[in-house]
Amino acid sequence: MEFLNAVLLAGMAAVTIPVVIHLFHRSRFRIVNWGAMHLLESVLRKNTRRLKLEQLILLLLRCAIPVFLAICMARPVITGLEPLLGNAKSSTVLVLDNSYSMEAGGPGRTNFQEAREAARQIVDQQVQGSDVALVSMAGGASAGAEPTFDLDRARGELSRSRSGFGTALAYDSLRAAQATASKMHHAHREIVVLSDFQKVSWGEEGGLPGATRARLADELARGPVKPTVTFFRVGREITDNVSMEQPTFSRMILGVGQKLVVHANLKNHGDQSYPDLRVVLKVDGRERSVAQTSLDPHAHAQVLFTHAFDTAGSHVVELMADADPLTADNGWLASIPVWDRVPVLLVSGDPNPEPLRGETDFIEIALRPFGAAKVELADLITTSTIEARDLDQKRLAEARVVLLANVPQLNEAQLKALDAFVREGGGLLIFPGNRINSAWYNTTLAADGRGLLPLPVVSLAGSMNQAGTQSSIVAQHFEHPALEMFNDPRNGNLSDAQIWLWYKMRAELGRNADPTLTVLARLDTGDPLLVEKQFGEGRVIQAAIPCDADWSNLPMRPFYLPLMQQLVTYLASKVHPSRNVDVGRPLVAFLPLADAGKKALFTDPDGRATEVVVANRGTRGMVEFTQTDRPGLYVLDAPGGNRIHFVANTDRKESDLRQLDPGELQAVAKAMGATVVTSWAEYRQMDQKRRYGQEVWQMLLVGVLGFIFLEMLLEQFFARRRT
Amino acid sequence: MAQLGELLTPADLKKISNLQVLARLVVEGFCTGLHRSPHKGFSVEFKQHRQYVHGDEIRHLDWRVFGKTDRFYIREYEEETNLRATILLDASGSMAYGGPENSKLKYATRLAASLAYLMLQQQDSVGLVTFDTEVRRYIPARSQTSHLKVLVNELQGTQTGGETELAKVFHDLVPRIHRRGLLIVLSDCFGDVQNLLTALAHLRHAHHEIMIFQIWDPDELTFPFRQWTRFDCLEIGGKKHLIDPNHLRSAYLANLERFRADLKQGCHRHRIDLVPLTTDRPYSEALAEYLTLRMRR
């Protein structure tokens, strides 16, 4: 208990006034010589004791009135055990939930707008000289939160802040807030979290399980001054929401005319049913296909779209559902590059001028059948064949996929260039043969799992002459995208082919096995036929047999052509650097070396353009853009006039709009020692109480008035009783 | 010797001379039978004529004299009564209330003088008894005009004394006043009501007519004290009470009402006339009121 006007407590001395008045009157009595004493005495006999008691009660009441009045005027304040802040300056960190779920809300005003308004009011009521910092819960902006003493600047920052970002990270943002608060200047530090407190970010099963809460509470308590934490719940809960989950694209890069298959995945988070939900596929902003589906409450639905691009270049595919008003999660964007050709470099270890005798002759025809047939139709793949000795960096720079066919061995420079080529996203297809130097392959090319070769070759198996030793490919269900098409028997049966000789590879499985290693197909002996390995950003596929018809009749089978086309386009469809990234990840593009030093322009989803200088990376130029916190489409305008699209996507956890119920929120707050408020008025009341305590003079005044009233009543009552 | 003028101011005397007219009316009323007279068997004798003055009743004109002299004369009669009145004046301590000039005793003595004067004027015999706890002085009733001086001297010399003891005094008086007559009590009647009524009944039993002028000071009826007051008893020295009158006023007034009601009821029962008087009322008015009342009986 404290007093704002403690001096006025001296007024309690007024307690003596009634006593003094009483004594004064008693001492200044007059004397009357009275005759009718017998009338007076009988009254006195009956009333003296009662009178004394009544007088005592009235005296106590009259003494209480000035005492209470003095206490009332001294403005007592109940403070609990905490010292009062008064008008002391304070340091406040505003943690603003800017995830896209905050775009839900009442008509005319989103939850985010409400949160921002509340934050502005908090800034407005700061005492001049206080410092304020703004931390965003989503979009990774928290790292850059700098406290400012300039409240106008803080207001400006607030008015510029936007919602629509990905998942609100409760733990990270509160840690960032704590770090910011520890840098601030005033003794009273406060963290105000303005959020919708979704289960996904704050719940036990969401982003803040019990153990994390305890850890966070510990971390908040650390530092020189423990900040007080306030949870400011804004807006109201809306549960009806449909979200477009991550779609599945049959491939992320493809050639002109190739078919792109897109599965749009829809999820209904609410209780509302959508019998005729319209889903649209847009390509480069133009509506290309529309589908309708029905979506039951809490159900999933999938819609299939196909599209073939008729022009090469960077394209943007957008899926959109016409559902609820929270539009941030109703669509999904993807950047799909479309190539007019895939340049493949065929390195032959056994060239031969005779038709179909060379090591790469069959595969060359299989990769560009139209070109081989001299017809007008255009091939997607272009090939160029060289001998092993001609392989160099320049040749590699022109290719997307390199094929080593029966190459005995490479020199060091070639190996280094090839290593770099695959590491930066290139595709490598290795076919063995009778001319390979298996020792070099196993030691240098495999390099104990660190090299390009997925598995070392052990020995030759099978026999060219001996009947019954030949093998065939196991007809299985292929999981790998390159072989997926052969799950449909109409596209050919891989087990048709006969394989007489093949290389056995060292057992690929084991404790130290490379986790990126995949066996695409096996022979019926159990030996791997096709093995894939991730190498840097690129991929390597190693075959157990050559690509010509020496050891098998594979090139004679109808599926040879699609198989080779699939393998090559699979290897070529590795887009590096990726055009579709998670929010917060950098956008990278390789540009011609000639562009190095020039300026490229990145335009973010809000339309803000940023100039980036193209860096020189030896053989090529590179641009990088890191400000990708905002989900959406980013456009790179390269110096050469080339336009590349990037998409930053966020996961759809935020689409589950369920919020913590009041009990759960209290539990979270309790675990972290925070206070929960749900309105500006409530916050203000709490702040006032914290600053100035809870004044109780009103109650005391009521008490004083009560005493006065009681005194009057009692006096009248006593007077009536005396008659 | 005190002058009569000291007790009766000229204004009072003027009023009283009017009252003499009224007193005569009582006798006339008795004669005509219009009113009941308390003095049955009185003879009425012609006394003198006097000149008619404006305001006299025309029926009292002596038409015979008018016929002879052509002037208006009023016939005046002389009453001859056997009324023996004794004034019982309370000189107890409580009668001293009101200060030396306006005390109840002072008021009572003036009233007593007026009554005596009036009665002697009417040829009645008037006696006087002064008392407090006991009879102090007893002057038997006489009807000579000179008797007034005796009475006035006694009244003038009367001082307040001890405690009121009306009952005892009245009991004592019964054997001393032999002849039936009118007893006029001038007192505040303080004391035990029942005892007083018993004593009065005793007097009534001796065939006395009793009339009580109960003398009050206005303070005793209104209890107007506001500040703390020490009430010193006028009758018993050393008895005093320091009180805040505000808290006791209503209780006192209620007690007073009860006392007055008891006394009034008792007097009514014994056919005693009780006339409460306050010292702020002119005693001549009170006297007039009494005679009006007396005339009606």
Structural description of this entry:
The complex is a heterodimer of chains A (723) and B (297). Chain A is 28% helix and 28% strand. With 723 residues, chain A is of the alpha/beta class. Chain A has 5 domains: 2-82 and 696-722, no CATH class; 90-238 and 657-692, Rossmann fold (3-Layer(aba) Sandwich); 242-339, Immunoglobulins (Immunoglobulin-like), CATH 2.60.40; 342-572, Class I glutamine amidotransferase (GATase) domain (Rossmann fold), CATH 3.40.50; 580-649, Immunoglobulin-like, CATH 2.60.40.10. In chain A, strands 19-18-20-21-26-25-24 form a 7-stranded mixed β-sheet. A 5-stranded parallel β-sheet of chain A has the order 7-4-8-9-35, with helices on both faces. Chain A has a 5-stranded mixed β-sheet with strand order 11-17-16-13-14, with no helix packed on it. The model of chain A has no long low-confidence stretch (mean pLDDT 86). Mean pLDDT of chain B is 77; it is low at 1-7 and 16-43. In chain B, the strands form 3 sheets. A 6-stranded mixed β-sheet of chain B has the order 5-4-3-6-7-10, sandwiched between helices. Chain B has 2 domains: 16-80, no CATH class; 84-296, von Willebrand factor, type A domain (Rossmann fold, 3-Layer(aba) Sandwich). The two termini of chain B are 37 Å apart. Chain A binds chain B through residues 25-26, 28-44, 46-47, 51, 54-55, 719, 722-723, and chain B through 93-97, 104, 188, 190-191, 217, 220, 225, 227-236, 239, 241-244, 247-248, 250-256, 259. Strand 2 (30-34) of chain A pairs parallel with strand 8 (229-233) of chain B.
